[in-house]
Design goal:
about 70% helix; mainly alpha; MetI-like fold; single chain; 16 helices; 2 domains; about 300 residues
Length: about 300
C-alpha cells in the first residue's frame, strides 16, 4: 500500500485560502430573470393559441382562457388539412415567395451595381428617387396598383401577386451601401484581364456580397409568405389564394367570428409551421443579417 508524504498532501489538497468561490453577479442574474419573464409573457399568446387548437370547441366556449388541452383532439387540424385546396394554397405561397425573392435580388443587385460602378447622367437624381420610394408606404399607392392590374385583367394570377413589390427601394439602398465598400481596385484588375462589366458583376461583386444577398433573400421570402393585404384584394378565386388568405377564408366558411376559435388557431399554426421551420434552419443567418443591416449608416 502506497503512502503519501505530507508534502504531496499539501500539494494535492489546497487549503481554504486558495479555494475561493466566485462572487455572485447579481446584476447578471437579475437581467436573466427579467429576460425569462418577458420571454414567457411574449410567448403566452402563442402557447394559448397552440393549446386552443387541440381543444374541443365546446370546451373553448365554456372556458376560453385554458392552457390544458384535455380532452385532446385533432379535429380542427383534420378539417383544415382535409380540404383539397390547402396543398394548392401552400404551393401558391411557395411559388410567389420564391419567385419574388429571386427576381427582387437579381434586379436590385443589378441596379446597385449600376449606381456604384457605372457613371451615367441623372444617377444622383435616380438615387434620390429611390430614397424617396423608401418613405412612401405601399398603402399610399395601393389603389392605383389595384386599378392597373384590374385593367390588365391580371388579378387571380401569379403575376399580380409577385409584381407589385418586386423592386424594393430598401433592398436597393442596402445593396448600394454594401457595394460601395467593395474596393474599385478589384474591378480594375478584372478589366485589365479582359473581363466585361457583367463578368465583374457576376464573378467579383456577387461572391463578395453573398452575406447581404442571403440576408435580403431570407427577409424577402418571409415577408412575402406572411403578406396579407395585397393577396386579400388581388386574389378572389379559391384556386389563386395564398396560404395566409386561404386558411382565413376556410375558417370563415366553418363558422362565424365568435365561434370555431379552435379551427382558427389550428389554421394559424398550419400556416406558421413552415415559417418556424424556415426560421430554425436559417436562425444564425437571420441574426447575423439583422446585425449586418443595422450596421449601415
Amino acid at each position: 500500500m502506497k503512502t503519501i508524504s505530507p508534502s504531496a498532501q499539501a500539494i494535492s489538497l489546497p487549503n481554504d485560502a486558495t479555494v475561493r468561490r466566485k462572487p455572485v453577479n447579481w446584476q447578471r442574474l437579475l437581467f436573466a430573470l427579467l429576460f425569462c419573464s418577458f420571454t414567457f409573457l411574449w410567448m403566452l399568446p402563442a402557447i394559448w393559441s397552440l393549446v386552443t387548437s387541440f381543444r374541443y370547441e365546446t370546451d373553448i366556449q365554456r372556458d376560453l382562457i385554458g392552457f390544458i388541452p384535455f380532452p385532446f383532439t385533432l379535429e380542427h387540424y383534420q378539417r383544415i388539412l382535409g380540404d383539397g385546396l390547402v396543398a394548392r394554397w401552400f404551393l401558391n405561397s411557395l411559388v410567389v415567395a420564391a419567385t419574388r425573392t429571386i427576381v427582387q435580388i437579381t434586379l436590385c443587385s443589378l441596379a446597385a451595381f449600376a449606381f456604384t460602378r457605372i457613371q451615367f447622367k441623372g444617377k444622383r437624381i435616380a438615387y434620390v428617387l429611390v430614397l424617396v420610394g423608401i418613405m412612401v408606404p405601399f398603402e399610399a399607392i395601393f389603389i392605383p396598383i389595384y386599378l392597373f392590374f384590374a385593367n390588365l385583367r391580371l388579378h387571380n394570377t401569379y403575376t399580380a401577386l409577385i409584381a407589385p413589390e418586386v423592386a424594393s427601394p430598401l433592398a436597393l439602398f442596402l445593396l448600394t451601401q454594401f457595394f460601395q465598400e467593395i474596393p474599385m481596385e478589384l474591378d480594375e484588375a478584372a478589366y485589365m484581364d479582359g473581363a466585361s462589366r457583367f463578368t465583374v458583376y457576376l464573378r467579383v461583386i456577387l461572391p463578395l456580397a453573398i452575406p447581404v444577398l442571403t440576408t435580403l433573400a431570407i427577409f424577402t421570402f418571409l415577408g412575402t409568405w406572411n403578406e396579407y393585404l395585397w393577396p386579400l384584394v388581388s386574389s378572389t378565386d379559391r384556386q389563386a389564394l395564398t396560404v395566409t388568405i386561404g386558411l382565413r377564408k376556410l375558417a370563415e366558411t366553418f363558422g362565424h367570428q365568435t365561434r370555431d376559435l379552435g379551427l382558427k388557431m389550428a389554421g394559424a399554426w398550419v400556416g406558421g409551421i413552415p415559417i418556424l421551420i424556415f426560421y430554425f434552419i436559417f436562425q444564425r443567418r437571420i441574426v447575423s443579417g439583422i446585425k449586418l443591416t443595422s450596421g449601415f449608416r
